Amino acid sequence: xxxxxxxxxxxxxxxxxxxxxxxxxxxxxxxxxxxxSDGPNGIRKGLVEESEQVNIHCYPALSVLGNSWDREVIYNxxxxxxxxxxxxxxxxxxxxxxxxxxxxxxxxxxEYFSEDAxxxxxxxxxxxxxxxNRGIGTCLKHFAANNREYDRLFRxxxxxxxxxxxxxxxxxxMVIQKADPYSIMCSYNPVNGINASENEWLLRGILRRxxxxxxxxxxxxxxxxxxxxAVKASLDIRCPYSTNSELELKDGIKxxxxxxxxxxxxxxRILELSDKVEKARKKRSPLDDTDxxxxxxxxxxxxxxxLKNENGLLPIKAKKITVLGELSESPSYAGGGSAEVVIEKxxxxxxxxxxxEINPETEIYYEKLYSRENCTHRTAGVRVFNExxxxxxxxxxxxxxxxxxxxxxxxxxxxxxxxxxxxxxxEKLICNVAQKTKKLVVVVEAGSAIDMTxxxxxxxxxxxxxxxxxxxxxxxxxxxxxxxxxxxxxxxxFPRCLEDTPIGGKLENPYADRYKEGxxxxxRHYVTNNVPVLFPFGYGLSYSTFKYSNFNVKEIKxxxxxxxxxxxxxxxxxxxxxxxxxxxxxxxxxxRPRRELRRFDKIYxxxxxxxxxxxxxxxxxxxxxNICYNTWHVDEGRYEIIVAKNVNTDIFMKKxxxxxx
Length: 661
Ligand code: GLC
Description:
It is built from 16 helices and 28 strands. The chain is an alpha/beta fold.
């Protein structure tokens, strides 16, 4: 449509609301409608008519991508999901979700990358770039401070400005700067008492003025309460269609809440988005369908975390193994809610089949052992069978693999977990099996941190897959057999219990979630307050051994540093290491976390191979958000640069003196 073509006010108002559930208004044919679809790890069923579905894949949940720490893998997932959208005539995927994991009970944590904003921002930028470079738009969500599901439309998130900028909008700020997402979705929850969709401070003040976002803002579905107030706050498109819109907008104009200046601002952003999508349609080129499956597989492998491996029990050397648990046949490959991707059951191979394909000579005894009917909360829904007669034979096998986990009805949108333990029946089952064999591998398929303290000391190995998509069992078999070396690292802390988390498990009050822990979220809390954890942020084991050497810190120019070191794979197994760099502001003038992740890289090393890793440090590595200056600020003083294997395991440290920026 020509830029200056006059639109009637009626046409303008219709542009400000979806034309249905997932399609924008086409100005009666003058512009092509934009097709939207959930969700971050695959096209949600039902958004494309079953009969028209083409090449829809279920990729690993974003929490698994977070555990991969692998920029390239995540870029490829963005390309793959874009390819599915191209095949299904979708223009914008409603993802990625980058909310920070403030509490492990949040029902949608499986949809988010991390408890750390820098890691989330870096990885989400790859997803957005991969997707958009294939000609499909993204919709970064949910802006902002949507860190729980309970009563998300009513209870307000009460957050101070510094915490807001350093923790809850930092990832948005990074992705806007690095990858320029086509659109952003505002969240359901009120922020400091005002609904996000109508919050001028949030949308016009922070998102547009401070973060300089110039793109279209969609509301979450049903998140607009008064459309005129939303337009005044600079929300562009109300989702989904609402019969109230026209009335509310006209009433808003009559009362002087909004006028055509506000309306034209949004209309122009919407028409620009329409042009952008139109141009992108011309450069779309989907990946081959087989390549997409291979990307799903590689991402599932890269995000799988080996948490325990006593006496090198893994990879499997046994010729006779036992596999236990219904999840090995019908795995938890995705979480619930709008991120659910339903694929035909036959497309997911069983774990037994996958292991057998790798090692045909291995003798495998399988028992279902339990059944997970449609359980909607933790203790119900799991029926553990009486120990079948064959099981005792199984214990003669050289190794037992027990698959447990949560299902999409336990970790899902619109509800939070009430506990971070596994279903009590499954915990008991683990302990029972652990009494029968001292070669027990427990595989956990869950979307967020699990309190394993009741059984972790009773088993010999633990693998955490997460909701790893359609290739979950092939990836798991590759890891268990050693065909692939595990390289995942936790992108969220696994606490010893819910009570140890910064906000515990209690609901403070029915009206507000007060973020009184401030910036001390995740490892920032545990490290600063010396709280022991089950597994720390950045933790994960490998079948390889890596040696670090030649650490060097050089000031390359005023207040910019180059940190370099060598990493060598001194084992006989090819593998990957995640090198992590944290910074500690020793002479802090404001209360700051004892250390914060500032750089990372995942490097792949063949057996015997050595590589040099270099990190360039500049202002963002030392800054905090100073509310007096209302900007990122670096206080002069001593800082410690720490190269680590995880947030609790330092390898190199060096104190430097940083002058005022
Ligand atoms: C949901 C979710 C959002 C999703 C949207 C469309 O309620 O919060 O993530 O994209 O509605 O289904």
